[in-house]
Amino acid sequence: MSPLWHDEIGVYLSPHRLCLVRMQRGVRPKPIAEHEQALESAQAAGWSAPLDALEALLAQPAWQGAHLRVVLADHWARYTIVPWVAELSSTEEQLAHARQLLTSIYGEVVSDWDLRLSQTPPQTARVVCTIPVALLEGIRAACAKHAVKLTSLQPQLIAAYEAWRHCLPPSNAWFVTVEQGSLAAARIGQHGWDRVHSVRIGSDWTRELKRLQTFGRLASNIPEEGQVFVDAPHAWREVAAGAAGASAAAGGLHWLEEEGGPMTTLQRLVRARRLAA
Question: Relative to the CA of 79, which of 43, 112, 126, 158 has its CA 20 to 30 Å away?
């Protein structure tokens, strides 16, 4: 069977929530199943409960016989920008440099995590992301156990940016994605991302929203910083609209909203994640 006609399943995995969408492939892909499940784990930062829940679903006929795209919450990812260094010519040298930068920022805890460098033209900075090896191995093992083909595995900031990219300016803007417990932001420069930040946030959404709005106002007052575009749970958007008289750009923020029409698997998964939180 041609890969074009395989159903595709999008999975969003976080310490607090599991979301799945199944898209029937074809000339006009369409959603045929969705699942959302809150997770209660004794170890909030761990991935045992999310992986167990995913395995249980993959054992069900409704979630078999399809290709899988997995998006991991930024809770488990760490990012930084890697400046261009002309003297580093080999892939091994570039990866070693990136790992050194990550370790200097986040400590030895990330020294043995899996890392990936973005592909960019020479003389431009690159983005590096690192994720725990054990988590990635657990996902691959679950897919292998249930004979599901894993076609992509991305952290939330990367996947959300790709899903919203058509709505963002080509440069001079911030893209922010929010989940329960964490927030990640990337600044879009002339040659791609030139800054990236990820922070832990509390459970008081009203407080965190005010902090985000302060950042939006500061950025909007500095022309070179650009506008701030936010991918956040619908609940945040509703709170922001109520507090600001339903002004879409209140606090210097531009809240990203789904458009009508067909969606890709990742776009449908973004919608499910935003509605579930």
Answer: 43
Among residues 73, 43, 37, the alpha carbon closest in space to that of 55 is found at 37
Helix axes 234-243, 205-220, angle to 10 degrees: 70
Q: What is this structure's pTM?
A: 0.90
Note the CATH architecture for domain 167-276: 2-Layer Sandwich (3.30)
Show the tokens assigned to 110.
């990330």
**CATH fold for domain 3-75+132-157:** Nucleotidyltransferase; domain 5 (3.30.420)
Residue 156: its H or E element: helix 156-164
Q: How far apart are CA 74 and CA 201, in angstroms?
A: 12
pLDDT value, residue 253: 82
- Angle, CA 17 vertex, CA 16 and CA 22 arms, to 5°: 165
Per-residue pLDDT, averaged over 190-207, amounts to 84
Q: What angle do CA 82, 131, 125 make, to 5 degrees?
A: 15
Task: Name the phi and psi angles at 217, rounded to 5.
Answer: -65, -40
Residue 245 pLDDT > 60 = no
The neighbouring-strand residues paired with 79 are 129
pLDDT band at 248 (very low <50, low <70, confident <90, very high): very low
Distances from the Cα of 84 to the Cα of 87, 94, 236, angstroms: 9, 9, 37
Q: Which two tokens stand for residue 211?
A: 């902090």
**Domain ranges within the chain, ordered by starting residue:** 3-75+132-157, 76-131, 167-276
Equal CATH topology for 3-75+132-157 and 167-276? yes
